[in-house]
Amino acid sequence: MSDIQAGTNRVAIQAATGQTYGEAGKQIAAQRAVPMGAPPTEAPQIQRPVPGTLGALTRPTERPMEPITAGAPFGMGPSPVGAGIPQPAGDNALEELRMIYQMFPNDDLADLIDSYTRDGL
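Predicted structure:
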């Protein structure tokens, strides 16, 4: 029999050699009861640019009308959401601080939360 059983993508049933009497039979029976899946495949390789192929770091901008802060949560230009940058769920520091304060209330944490809300963050 080949490495792959005929008609399936499963690994062939086989037992290790040099076992005590009856162990190989138990292995084969177990593999028949719950067949092994297909052998793993390689993950696709991500194509990344070769260093030095994108041009000089000091070359002129390719987006002269776009502010340097575009996509940042501050400054001119679109916000991260407006720029299409995916935002992880629950990544709001103020919400996390408030949840921590509910579990462990203390004056220092309250002051930190107040400083966030006073600054308009």
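Summary: The chain has a mean pLDDT of 80.
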